[in-house]
Every structure is written in C-alpha cells, then in structure tokens.
Fold these 2 entries.
Entry 1:
Amino acid sequence: MGDNTLLANGNGNTPLPRTSTETLQAATAPETSTISLTTPDTTIARDLGFLPIPRRLRYDPEHPAHFGLVINATFGFASTFVVANLYYCQPLLIEFSKSFGVTYDEVSRIPTLIQAGYAVGILLISTLGDLVRRRPLILLLVFISGALTIGLAITKSLVVFEALSFLVGMTSVVPQILMPLAADLAPPERRASALSIVLAGLLFGVLIARVLAGIIAEFVTWRAVYYFAIGVQYLVLLMMYLVLPDYPAKNKGATYFGILFSMAKFAVTEPVLIQAYLINLPSSACFTNFWVTLTFLLGDAPYHYSTLVIGLFGLVGIFGVAMAPFVGRLIDGLIPWFATVTAIMALLVFQAIAVGADGVNIAAVVIVCFGLDVFRQMAQVSLTTRVFSLDPNARARLNAVLLLSLFMGQVMGTSVGSQVFTKYGWRPAAALSVAWTGFMLFMILLRGPHVPRYTWLGYKGGIEVRKSRLARSGVDSAVAAVTAEPDAAPTSDEKKREASDPPNCGDVEKAQIREKDKIEVAENSE
C-alpha cells in the first residue's frame, strides 16, 4: 500500500490521501457509544403535550447533551428517594397496627403488597423505557407516586392504605428506567461507573429509608414520614425536570406486546442473561439471608443489642455503598466477566468469615457487613454491564428479566435462611450462604469471557483480563492488516471477509470495520 492510503471523502467522490500515521491514529481511536436512537422528524418542545421542555434539554442530534457527573448524580439522588418508597413502611408496622386498630398479621400485608406492586411495575411499566421517550415517562411516574403518597399520609382506612401501597410500588420503578438510560448515555469506557452510581443510590435508598422512618416516627408521628416522602419526591420531580435531557424513543414502530414478547424470548435464548440470572439469584439470597438472620444474632447472647443498635448496623452498609465510584472505575478497566469472578471469590472469603463470626468478636460481624455490601455491589454492576452489552436497544427489558432474579433471591434468602437459623443456628445459616456462593462460582466458570454470544458453555478467544489490552491487540491486528503486502495471496477466510465488506469501502476502512467488529463481539460476549 505504501505510505499513503486512499480514503473516500465526505461525498464519496475524490479519494483523499491518508498517511500511515493518520491510519494508526484512526485504528487507535476510542470506541464510541453503541446506542442507536431513533431521530425524530422535529425537535419535541413539550412533555406530555403541555409541559415545556427547557431549550437546553431538548434533543438535538447535532449536539447531543453531555452525560456528565451532574446528570449521573441526579440519577443517583432520584433512585435513592424513589426506591425509599418501598421501605418506609417496614419499621412502622407496629405504629400502623395501633393507628388502624388491627393485628400485626393484618399490617404485615403492607410490605408484601408494596413489593408485589414493584414487581408488577418492573414487568409492565419499566419495560416502556424501550418503547417511549424516557423523560416524560419518568416525570409522569414521579408525579403519580408523589400524589399517591398523599393518600398514604391522610387515609384512615387500612384497606385504602393497602391499595395505595400497591400502586405506589407500581409507580416507584423510576430507578429501573434510569439504570438502562445511564448505560445508554454514558461513554462505553465509563458505563460501569455510571451504573454503579445509580445502583449506589438505589441501595442507599433501601438503607436510609428505614433509618429516616424510624427517627421521624419516634419524634413526631408515622404520618410525618409520608409527608416527608411527598416533599422529597416532588423535589426529585423538580430536579429531573431541570436536569434530565430529552432523548427520542429507541424502538420506533415497536408495540407494547411485542416488547413483552421479546423480553420473554430474551429470558430463554440469551446464554449471558441466563448465566447472570442464575448468579444474581443466589447472590440476592445470600445478602437477604445475612441481614435477616443478623437481627437474631445481635439480639441474642452474647451481644444482647437493642433494636436501635441493631438498626445502626445498616450504617455499615452505607459505607459499603459509598465505595460505588471506586468499584465502578475498577470494573471499567476489566472485562466484566473477570470482575464478576473477583467479586464472587471475595464474597466466598467474607461468607467464610461470617460462619466463624458467631460470638467471636463484633469486629468480625462489622467486617462481614462491609465486605458483603462492597462485593455484592461489584458483582451486580459487572453482571448488569455484561447483560446490557447484549442489545443496546433492549436494555430496559434485559434489566427487567435480571431484576426478577433479585426478587426470587430475596424470597429464597428470607424463607430458607430464617428456617435454617431457627432450627440450627447462625453458623449453619451462614454455611448455607457459603454453599450458594460456591454455586455462583460454578455458574460463572461454566462459560468463559470471550465465547460467541449464543455459545452456552466453554471457553474461546483467550482469557485476557483488561479491556485496554484486548483493544490494543485489536489495534495491532488492524495495523498489520493495513500494512500488509498487497501481492500476498488471500486466504479462504480473507476471501469470505472480503465478500462481506461494505461496497465502495477502502482497505483501511475494511480493516477498521473488521477489528471494531472483533472488539464489539468480545464485549458483547460479556
């Protein structure tokens, strides 16, 4: 080829010379986001037909909004105080019983109903993120959940309270719309970091809701908890209105039932998704098993801690959540499969410590609390990153399927873990979590990091750990292809590739397209 390579110009007419230096720079250019958005015919100026969109937030395909720290932090804040709706009720059940004049059994239906509503919302509402514009959907859901919370604060009927709790759960799925949206908008090299911040906000909401509800109800009344929830939700609504850019729908022409059908299809045809599901389920069970049985451990001999002190152990989990940015940066540098393996092996170590923590020293319990929060978060972010790479236009559906494993794991961890603890004690219950974590390790090792998308078992393509080295090896191949002698006889594989190359495409573009495809295949295999 010599020192110059011919490239078509912008009009596809006169070839333009490119030096080998420019060729190398093009080969080493960073990957761009793979998200495919449908460009609307005209810029939409109003949400829901009447609410003006600030001009700087309107979608402009020529100048798309920058996904920076402000938007990412806003996503995290919104996740915290929307998901908190699901957990305010848990420390208030005794107060509900007194206020409504009913038994503990009757008020125990409230957390079940709100979680059931959340599950329905994930399946039927969060999947709309793959069908409609996300900005108006998010604003509408936050407004509705805030309005329903007004009813929770003022009603004097348990039946009405239960019905409203179910509906609040259904509309509190905004974090599960923000997760795929963050993955869509963040640059590929920051995707895990962006997801970790949103997930940290979600986990922080789970932890802080119980603390806030307990403190407010202790010094005021349980209804004040819901007045607080109303205020903070409309604060979230205002923040999202002022910060969230508008983006077009991702799947123009798709139907709602078609979206649901494709979600079911993903659940049985995608090896990566099924592997992640079977890892996430026992991971959630281990986490729930630990926190449920921890209450019994700390309340009995030799600790005899009060309910307040036991509740403060949730603050240890907050420190683990605070590690999210560091966890995300670590995952961004690794092939997600290896990040998952690292997290599972660390979880095995901390679960083993938990087995021996019974009555030994409270420091061991604190260490386990911290370690489980950090590495479970690492496992979930890396699994989510792998799953989201399967299809950028179906991330809401993929996320919904993955979340089902969390609910099933919580049920399994609560029921099985509690039964084992009450019959045999702390150590057998902790050993059960060790066994579940061992199953997670077995499942991740069944399928390697670089196998083709629809391969169910095995290893292929090496075991490179770092993304940078994988990309660099692709660049080396591209440079070799560009500088190859033109007289060399093509192999049969090269002939096949040549036949599949786009028409009117120069040698350099062909090499770059091939190597980009290789890198995308390697990442999609995650």
Entry 2:
Amino acid sequence: MATELQNLVFVWTSVVAALVYCRHVTKLVAAGPRRLLLFLPVILLFLLLPLRLTTISLGGLTAFFVAWLSNFKLLLLACGKGPLAPPLSLPLFVAVASLPIKIGPSTGSAAAKNGGGDGLKSPANYVTKCLFVAALFPLYQRSDYVHKKVMMMAYSIHMYIGLEVALAAVGAAAGRLIGAAVEPQFDEPYLSTSLQDFWGRRWNLMVTSILRPSVYDPVRSASGRLVGRRWAPLPAMLATFAVSALMHELIFYYIGRKEPAWVVTWFFLLHGVAVAAEVAAKKVLRGTRWQLPAEASRLLTVGFVVVTGFWLFLPPLLRCDAVAKARREIIAVLEFGKGLWSILRFISFEVVSGP
C-alpha cells in the first residue's frame, strides 16, 4: 500500500505539472490544430499514468479522472470549447481539468435541486447508502452459499453507491478548497422512467456533460446534413455510446490489466440502439394518446438496465478480479484505521499520564 501511495503522489504531481503546461499553451496558442498538436504529449501521458496504480479505489478513480475526463476536456479546449475554454485562474484550471467538478452559475440550479449549496445531496442520503452497503458485507462472507444472481445484484448496488459516494467526496473536497460548485454525478438512477432519462439525466452526469459537446453535438451536426434534423440525434446517440464503450473498456483494462473481450462494448452498443429506438418511438408516437404509466416505465427501464448489466457489464468487471481487489482494499483501509486508532490512543494516554 505504501508503494501505491508513492505512485499516487507521483501520478498526481505529473498531472498538475502537465496541466500547468497546458494552461500556458492555451494562453500562447490559439485554438486549432497547432494547440491540439501541443496537447498530444499530455494526452498520451494521461493515458499512461494510470498504469502506475493497481488499486480500484485509487487507480480506478485516477483512470476515470485523468485518462477519460481530463483528456476529453483537453480535446475540447484544443478546439476552444468545453469547461476549460473560459478564462480561469491557474488553481481553477487545474482543478476543473483534473477532477469531476463544474464551476459557473449553471450549477446553482443543481445545488437547489439537491437541497445543498454545494450541489450535493444531504449527508443523511449518503450515510444511509453507506449503511446499506455495510449491510451487504455479511452476504459477501457467505457468497459460496448465496445464489449467483443475488450476489450480482449486491455487487451492482455496491458499485453504484461506492462510485456515487467516492465521486461526491472528491468533488465536495475540491469544491470547498477552490470555492467552486460541484457537478452532481448521480440523480437517483433507480427512479428513471426511460433509458434516455437514465443515461442523459441521472447516471454519471459528468460523463454526459463531456460526451455531449465532444461526440454527440458534432455527430448530430454532421448527421443533420445527411438524414435531416429530425433524425440526426439517432446516429449521434449511437456514436456517443460507442465512444463510451471504448472508454469503459480502457477503464476495465486499467483495473484488471487483462486483454479486453469487448463484452462491455456490446453492452453500450446495445443500450445505444435501445435509446435510439426509444427516441424514434417517441417521435413517431408524439401527439398520440398512447403512453405508459410512470410506474410501468420505471419498472421496464430499471429491469432492462439490470438484466443487460448482469449479462454484459458485470461479467467483464468480475473477470478483472474487481471483487477480490475491493475486499483486499477494504481490509487494508480497516487495518490502517485500527493502527491509527491505536497510535492515537497511545499518544493520548501518554499525554494524560504525563512525565
């Protein structure tokens, strides 16, 4: 674990230094091919740095932040677009470029919606979810006696809550330090009434906000000249899910260091086709009286996500030994906490006892 922490310091020191370079390039070189060319070494570096980390908690999040989000933000900046395009101070530039946070007045509505001034949900919401995950630990200890589907459901819930809480913690800490509003990552995805609602407005919203200007909007604009404005969103959706699929394959590689089997790609391509079909059906049925009740829509949506996730998403994740790694990391954190508590107790005893 000590080696992992040393590598973490090296990785993030390199990230900050590279982003300082990118900001200076932005000030000296106009948006266009030349700026992109100067960004390419940094983009390549950001693809390589996560390979120095092996844990899910540190390596997985770093890969998501740096290899995916940071690189896409830099690609947008090379074109003069994205969250880094407005003039930002150096600390804000580095924070926005490397972490899942968002600044500006647009975050105010998100904050109001979630009941907090920083864009996050109430502490009780996160505490309740963490307690729910803690209640799953006895199930993991008896996994040999529990039905496989039940365990997969437990892993799914653990993954969702763990990701939401981890991203919220990172975003909140960074937001407090630099005075920026936090981009909410999730909006209770189990309440989705359609696949479009799930992927576009409730699940991993930072990815949505990055893929829209970098993939969806350009493809939609190009498709509009070929198939017309009405149907242009459909190929744009397929392209967006295809890019998301490739990035998930990359993240899974960072976690497991195993050659991809491209099963995750099929998961996202299937969902891309399903969302496109859903949007097309809405366009055709618009103005008619045919509409599913919200409860039925919610059941069908969540059911489709769960079934396809069990089929195509979780198996590649389990193939990466993600569960075993997560268990080892949890045990390591608990042991570290116990050791730290023992040291603090010893120090407090010495202080109270006196010379």
